[in-house]
């Protein structure tokens, strides 16, 4: 079966790889932590892998032919594991530390040497097993001895989890309700919200979370996405919309229908960056993200644009605090069906962006846009959080 352009999230890029070295976010130590790479994909012939799951990494020289792809560049890879010795990761700004260990049989961490097929400089990465969970605000990585020749030229490690911030709107986003637009942070359980498919629906769970944006390594990874007024189509959004990178917005176009076989799809906002008016938002030291959960996955109106509500799935669990995970699970206790087909990554989504950009076509065509989305509203100030802590 094998992996086939399977998303490989949360790679930590290092300036090099070496034994008995400490890599830091501050230049001048034993090595530098360059940042996160969150758009890599991996392909091989390993029978236990699939297009959605990576349970084992294979070197390119192995019979299973592992290949890493980043921004359209293919890389041959070599692997190194900690050989039962500890790799210590300091995170939460230095307040916490995690000791990771393992070997090729089952490892909590793996190091990757990536060599571009067309020639060029090698790149170096560390990947952490899903069971470890998120390690926010990493400040240092201490590496002891490494096995540069793992048994079988492969390392068994689960790497299909996305630990990005989960689906949420920035505080200040106005959500359509039967009584008119309402700031998302003011919506509480039991309040009615207008949905695209099911009319007014009651919110089952709502939560706000403050996320820092001041760490050099996590800035690109956590930076929200700003969708400027009119970037999706006429009057969509009606004012600048700010969402988390993973938050999916509705795309309704003939281009989408030709590529994906569905005229309406949901696409993460970060995958649309590069289209006119869609950029990263890095002006604030922190941001308040707000979640809205319904009895089903819904498309709702956010600042006049169609966007998803919270979808309880694997990616959501990774972005929620343990207490919030328990609360959502207690309310749902079942699998939700996505409101529209979800497109996450790969060559097809790049083709979608390329065609829309080349032909200057709106992401939500006027002929397909629901009536509400066509109502333009004046730009008004939104709530911004600019404090340091």
Descriptive account of the structure:
There is one protein chain. Helix content is 11%, strand content 34%. It is mainly β and 389 residues long. The radius of gyration is 22 Å and the shape is globular. Mean pLDDT is 84; it is low at 373-389.
Q: Which ranges are low-confidence, i.e. pLDDT below 50, for 5 or more consecutive residues? A: 373-389
What is the share of helical residues? 10-25%
Main beta sheet, described?
A: 12 strands, mixed
Report the end-to-end length measured between terminal Cα atoms.
47 Å
SS strand fraction: 25-35%
Strand order of the largest sheet: 1-5-7-8-13-14-2-4-3-15-9-10
Silhouette: globular
SS-derived structural category: mainly beta
Number of helices: 5
Q: Give the strand tally.
A: 30
The radius of gyration is 22 Å
Mean pLDDT: 84
